[in-house]
Write the structure tokens for this entry.
Amino acid sequence: MALRLLLADDHRMLREGLRRSMTDAGFDVVGEACDGVEAIRLAGELTPDVILMDVTMPNCDGVEACRQVIDSGATSRVVMLTMHADQDVLAEAIRAGAAGYLTKDCSTREIAEAVRMAAEGDTVLSPQLARSMLNEVRRINEPTPQAPTPGDERVVSKREEEVLQLIADGCSTPEVAAQLYISQKTVKNHLASIYQKLDARDRTQAVLQAVRMGIVSLS
């Protein structure tokens, strides 16, 4: 069954272009919203798998719309689209619960892949944004690495630590699998275990918590 996609952007021409390209890529575009308020309403009515949400929209911006969609308990994953990689907006979007953040100069293939990954539970960022976003959220939260004391048991396994470090380095699930010579399913199993152990909702929260605990580092 095709993934169900909702488009939210105040520029009609861009929405029409996205509709054509996403339909060609095999997605079922179930609706379009011209502002944040309409996006929130359609998210509740249409229950799409993924929402492609513009950051800058009238009446209610994309970040606030994302926050309200997530707070409503909707299962839809939200991928933000923006013209500019503003650091503060990046951090706000992640805190609002966005599953991805892409710049509009991404290719159709990259957007389609991001939608699929978001639907599978991954957090997706444009490669050039991954490092800066993690560093910015770390700066805002001012994490203090907590060195383990003698006798402490390892919080995560050695393999989970390797997975976490590769995720912190900006690797996708397929890239982690390739580098560790394991299957993507195994990577996802490790991530599920990591989320539970670190009380994290997604890979971004897991990495930030691991940085605070001194398990991984951001070079």
